[in-house]
Design a protein that fits this description.
The structure holds two protein chains of two kinds. By secondary structure, chain A is of the alpha/beta class. Chain A folds into two domains: 2-26 and 288-317; 35-269, 3-Layer(aba) Sandwich (Rossmann fold), CATH 3.40.50. Chain A is built from twelve helices and six strands. Chain A has helices at residues 2-8, 12-28, 39-49, 77-93, 108-119, 142-148, 153-157, 194-204, 214-226, 235-248, 258-262, 281-317; strands spanning 65-71, 97-102, 131-136, 183-188, 207-212, 231-234. Chain A starts with a helix and ends with a helix. By secondary structure, chain B is an all-alpha fold. Chain B has a domain at 1-68. Chain B is built from eight helices and no strands. Chain B has helices at residues 4-22, 26-63, 69-89, 96-127, 133-148, 151-157, 160-170, 172-196. The model of chain B has no long low-confidence stretch (mean pLDDT 89). Classes of the chains: A alpha/beta, B mainly alpha.
């Protein structure tokens, strides 16, 4: 009985030490674990996949594109960056036209970093042809740009991050407004998608999806449930799910199928050395999160056992 | 006049935007196009104002040697050096700007956010107690969601734990979030009306 009383008084530094080890060890020693994909992630994956050019179709002529909006700084990168890499990889694997944009100055280098990281595996992808970075636009232009893109993207955005006129870029061929760029995915460490739902979706019928940190995911369910958001990547788990879907389908030029997901091939697992670390970092991170969650549950249990024993003793003494 | 003029601007533009939103007429579209041109021109001045403000505030702190003034020095050095490196060498891969981002901003930002895990673990151990029926429900739901969110939970309890987690998020969580959203929405409408009608003036700052 005394041991539980001592545990109740445990110095919190021991908790920090145990938790640090529980997080660091699975990151250093990766092991295979099964990633279960959820409907919001699958819906988003399938929506992005639907922008793939038909066989034989010239990707530059394709009249469909997606917009990735980076609305976070470096602090939430461990959760959001793997999502962004996975989605960019998906677009590059499938020759989908992709645009990037941010209204946060601190997110501008994250876009460059993400594109450069994925491009290492796709050296044939060219800026202005396969993708274009709209770059950083000041926050006061948030509303004008969201509304203006419903009329003419090239006119309202005007120049890309490299200072080129959008209207002169090959990627803009057959892309005018939300009729063509009909999917916006916003990545954010706080509330995400609100502006796009309110103005782009309600006014122009744009499909909107979000990638958010795990702590913010619960806030997004009302929009997800009503269909205002067509999909969501929730925290590192969402990133791990998307990574898996890209590995199982897009990288192998396969169509999405639930059956294939259940029979996940051995070569798409974490320990496969052929998959670069950057494309499986969320799944490796989920191993650390697994151990951390179990540890926190154990902490809760021990804490409560001690609490009830103390309470029992106090009642007895009274 | 210092309070009246901003009040007139806010009320006028507030009603003009209400008009633009609800009246599909050429006049409202013309107003919107005019506004777009102006906002593009005004934005850079906003940035200059922000830089001037932060520079003046921190320079004053350094000059007066107030407590923790070295932090102000670091702030200003960080601001101007990062901006200068971006202007001189650009912001692409391989530039000093990107080096600063990758080696200073990224790890420091991630470190700050990662501290959350340690606080949660410590709080879970020290404070998360089944003291009442409500606390017990919260505790059980938290444990189920935590297990349902990680691969190991599915390995131990099967896919049923994911379904249960999804139900918690889709039903009780959604119900409470909708309630909060409705409350916030109504509050926003009420506040907007108060601002439009000039009743709410606290945003102007200062006291009477």
């Amino acid at each position: 009985m005394k041991i539980f009383e001592q545990i109740q008084q445990l110095d919190r530094r021991w908790i920090y030490l145990v938790l640090a080890l529980a997080i660091i060890l699975p990151l250093i020693i990766p092991f295979n674990s099964r990633t279960h994909t959820t409907k919001p992630t699958e819906n988003l994956y399938r929506m992005v996949d639907s922008f793939t050019p038909a066989p034989g179709e010239d990707p530059v002529e394709k009249d469909r594109a997606i917009l990735m909006v980076f609305m976070h700084d470096a602090s939430t990168m461990p959760e959001l960056f793997p999502m962004e890499l996975a989605m960019l990889r998906h677009c590059f694997e499938r020759n989908i036209k992709v645009f990037t944009l941010t209204f946060l100055a601190t997110a501008a280098p994250i876009i460059d970093y993400a594109i450069n990281t994925v491009k290492e595996e796709f050296p044939d992808k060219t800026s202005g042809v396969d993708y274009v970075n709209f770059g950083y636009k000041v926050g006061s232009l948030y509303l004008p740009i969201i509304l203006g893109m419903g009329e003419d993207i090239s006119e309202i955005v005007d120049i890309d991050a490299e200072g080129r006129k959008l209207s002169s870029l090959p990627i803009m061929t057959n892309i005018k407004n939300y009729n063509e760029m009909n999917l916006v995915v916003e990545f954010s460490g706080s509330s995400a998608g609100a502006g796009w739902i309110t103005y782009a979706r309600s006014r122009f019928g744009t499909n909107v999806a979000v990638g958010v940190t795990a702590v913010m995911a619960a806030d997004t369910y009302p929009q997800l449930n009503t269909g205002q958001l067509i999909g969501m990547l929730a925290g590192l788990k969402g990133a791990a799910e998307y990574e898996k879907l890209v590995d199982v389908f897009a990288s192998k030029d396969k169509e999405f199928s639930k059956e294939n997901l259940r029979n996940e091939a051995e070569d798409t697992t974490i320990t496969n050395p052929d998959i670069p670390y950057k494309f499986k970092q969320a799944r490796i991170g989920m191993n650390a999160q697994s151990v951390a969650h179990i540890l926190i549950i154990v902490f809760i249990l021990i804490g409560n056992i001690g609490f009830f024993i103390q309470k029992y003793k106090q009642n007895k003494e009274m | 006049m210092k309070r009246t003029l901003p009040l007139i601007i806010v009320i006028t533009f507030g009603f003009l935007f209400v008009g633009y939103t609800f009246i599909p007429h050429q006049y409202s579209q013309d107003f919107y196009d005019w506004y777009m041109d102006w906002i593009k021109a005004l934005s850079p001045f906003g940035v200059i104002l922000g830089i001037m403000s932060i520079t003046m505030a921190h320079t004053a702190r350094i000059q007066r040697r107030v407590a923790n003034w070295p932090y102000s020095l670091v702030t200003l050095l960080g601001l101007y050096f990062t901006a200068a490196s971006g202007f001189i060498w650009g912001t692409q891969e391989g530039t000093p700007y990107m080096w600063i981002f990758k080696n200073i901003q990224m790890p420091m930002g991630a470190t700050m956010f990662a501290l959350l895990a340690f606080y949660i673990a410590s709080a879970a151990y020290k404070a998360f107690r089944a003291r009442s029926a409500e606390a017990t429900v919260l505790l059980v739901a938290a444990v189920i969601v935590m297990l349902g969110q990680v691969p190991i939970g599915i390995t131990i309890f099967g896919e049923g734990i994911t379904d249960l987690t999804q139900w918690i998020l889709d039903v009780p969580n959604l119900a409470s979030k909708r309630g909060i959203a409705l409350g916030v929405g109504l509050g926003m409408v009420a506040t907007s009306l108060r601002i439009l009608l000039g009743i709410e003036r606290t945003y102007l700052g200062g006291g009477e």
